[in-house]
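During the first year of the project, the team set up a workflow for recording each protein of interest as an amino acid sequence followed immediately by a discrete structure-token representation. This format lets reviewers and collaborators read both layers of information side by side without switching files. As required by the reporting guidelines, we include two representative entries from the current panel. The first entry is reproduced here exactly as it appears in our internal archive.
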Amino acid sequence: MANVIYTPNDILEQEFKTKMRGYDPIEVDEFLDNVIKDYEAYNKDLLTLREENDRLKAKIEQLSKAQPAPSRVKEAAPKSSAVTNFDILKRLSNLEREVFGKKLDQQASAQASSSDLSQNYTQDENDIEKTRQF
């Protein structure tokens, strides 16, 4: 409101000099009362719009921090920045791999060896069957 010359109170307290053939003071006062009401309404609307604008800017800033663009993540996010969900998931995955990885590796190797044995056994049976045909 830097460009405002008159406040509603300035308009209300304005006094005009009377002359012999001047305007009707009652009519001027009524007009100025309506101008004051409009002026106050515009001020309320302006204040409401500024608050909404600030709220929306804060929301945009919050959302942009929550979901940064992938290309900007490497550039804008220094090492000391807040931990993101991706970092948390990555750390959790590494932790699970460390804790459960040994068990999974043992199970996988056991399954692989049993499947190798069954595969070898099946090949042996196929070889025996081919030999019988001759």
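The second entry, processed by the same pipeline in the following quarter, appears below.
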Amino acid sequence: MSNQTIMAFDYGTKSIGSAIGQTITGTASPLKAFKAQDGIPKWEDIEKQIKEWQPDLVVVGLPTDMQGKDLTDITTRARKFANRLHGRFGVKVELHDERLSTQEARAELFSMGGYKALTKGNVDCQSAVVILESWFENMWD
């Protein structure tokens, strides 16, 4: 398997976290959180990041309940965000189950830096890391 660069997004209506990773290592690093107005980011900021990293694939976290069923509004909006990424930038996009990613991200950040590390942007980007590393794990299953 050749090494590929994969970008991930943790979609939210106020903030969208992002991370970057490599298939060869199966690890991810946080990038930045994009502010969003009712779920809509400044697309030029996202475009700048995509152009800078040139990912082979973009993974968007898909919010579901504990049974894997869609949540009322946010699941539909995350799907729409993924479709817009593909439509605007021509990148290949996959959705990935993000159950418990925020809780895991908060626990990891807290263990590294206590309460001060738990800013909204840090949590959203760490959630994108968790989503991407979970996607890598599923890739090898």
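For the second entry, the following points were noted during internal review. Residues 120-140 form the longest helix (21 residues). The longest strand covers residues 27-37. Both points are flagged for discussion at the upcoming steering committee meeting.
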